[in-house]
């Protein structure tokens, strides 16, 4: 199976611009090295930046057989090629646990990043296209968030009531009354027996 290398970058990032020529040369040599090389613009693909938990730019990941490793070496063409030729990636600890891009947690993180990008687009549509004031757009988004939260909460309560119905109050009260009556009857039955024993 083929190794993959990909770079997370942003157009406004100065460090990303410095590595660009080395990365292009690395991509041109990818066939000789039998690897796939790509790059991801985090401004266009926020979901991927969330899934790979990109906190610094540029970030380089190596992937093989579904195992991801973060490349932390020098970002020169020679070091990138040596990482593959000398199989240096075998000595690097893979991204494990919930940090792994293939984990459920990181899939959820990608969804959150997609949601934030969508909210930005909606805000831009409200302010630019519809001409709504910025604070008006914020108010609409806040009200929509509260309304969605209320609806989801109501749905969760209804599901809880359906799957785990509460104990009937009437049944609980009647069972308590029956228990009290039984206790009183047993006390009444025991008292004559106690009197007979004392008389003997």
Automatic annotation (TrEMBL):
UniProt-annotated location(s): Endoplasmic reticulum membrane
Every Thioredoxin domain range: 9-84
Topology in the lipid bilayer: Single-pass membrane protein
Zinc is among the record's keywords: no
UniProt-listed InterPro entries: Thioredoxin-like_sf, Thioredoxin_domain, TMX_domain-containing
Gene3D superfamilies: Glutaredoxin
GO MF term set: disulfide oxidoreductase activity
Keywords attached to this entry: Disulfide bond, Electron transport, Endoplasmic reticulum, Membrane, Redox-active center, Signal, Transmembrane, Transmembrane helix, Transport
GO CC entries: endoplasmic reticulum membrane; nuclear inner membrane
SUPFAM superfamilies hit by this protein: Thioredoxin-like
Leader sequence residues: none
Bilayer-crossing regions: 135-159
Protein's recorded name: Thioredoxin related transmembrane protein 4
Species in which this protein is naturally found: Sphenodon punctatus
């Amino acid at each position: 199976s083929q190794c993959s290398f990909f770079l997370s970058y942003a157009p406004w990032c100065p460090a990303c611009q410095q590595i660009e020529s080395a990365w292009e040369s690395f991509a041109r040599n990818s066939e000789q090295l039998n690897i796939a090389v790509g790059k991801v613009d985090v401004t266009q693909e926020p979901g991927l930046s969330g899934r790979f938990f990109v906190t610094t730019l540029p970030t380089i990941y190596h992937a093989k057989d579904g195992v991801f490793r973060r490349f932390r070496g020098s970002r020169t063409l020679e070091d990138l090629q040596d990482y593959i030729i000398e199989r240096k990636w075998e000595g690097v600890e893979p991204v494990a646990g919930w940090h792994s891009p293939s984990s459920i947690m990181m899939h959820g993180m990608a969804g959150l990043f997609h949601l934030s990008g969508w909210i930005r687009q909606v805000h831009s549509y409200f302010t630019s296209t519809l001409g709504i004031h910025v604070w008006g757009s914020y108010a609409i988004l806040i009200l929509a968030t509260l309304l969605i939260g209320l609806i989801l909460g109501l749905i969760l309560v209804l599901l809880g009531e359906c799957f785990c119905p509460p104990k009937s109050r009437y049944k609980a009260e009647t069972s308590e009354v029956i228990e009290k009556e039984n206790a009183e009857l047993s006390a009444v039955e025991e008292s004559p027996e106690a009197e007979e024993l004392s008389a003997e």
